[in-house]
Amino acid sequence: MKHRWAALLFVLALGALVPTTGAAQDSSAKKPPPERSPGFELGQNYPNPFNPATTIPFTLGDPPACSDAGRNYHVTLRIYNVLAQLVAIPVLLGGDGATGQAVVNLQLHCGSYAAFWDGNYLNSSQEISSGVYLYRIEVEGRAVAKKMIVIK
After folding, report:
1. What is the predicted pLDDT for the residue at 1?
2. How many domains does the chain have?
3. 67: burial class by Cβ within 10 Å (0-12, 13-18, 19+)?
4. CATH number of the domain bearing residue 53
5. Is the pLDDT of residue 20 over 60?
6. Which of 148, 146, 141 has the alpha carbon at shortest distance from 39?
């Protein structure tokens, strides 16, 4: 039992090391205006901790204004374990015609989206085990990761 708690604390410490942005940023540097470099935001999954399924919200561009509404964003969302092994690829909820598709190399317009993960391993019906997992979104080559917890 002591080993499990030690492992959990170790994993949580590792999770704190996950960068919140794809590249290091100088805090004194000015951010580019949104017109030249529209951004994206990865929300915290809910519920968190969860069992057996979760929803992951993300936003592309600057809704609701969407100054460049005709632009498509190249989006990939994946879930990894703490050993950086691919565990799952969530599917898109709602939104435009891509609903139900795996969020891999999707072309999406500016807006708010949500992805769903049923808590199963990639391409199987086997449920994952309890622990800390990381979900990572990549949009136009820039990436952000966050952690989530599964409790059985």
Report:
1. 53
2. 1
3. exposed
4. 2.60.40.10
5. no
6. 141
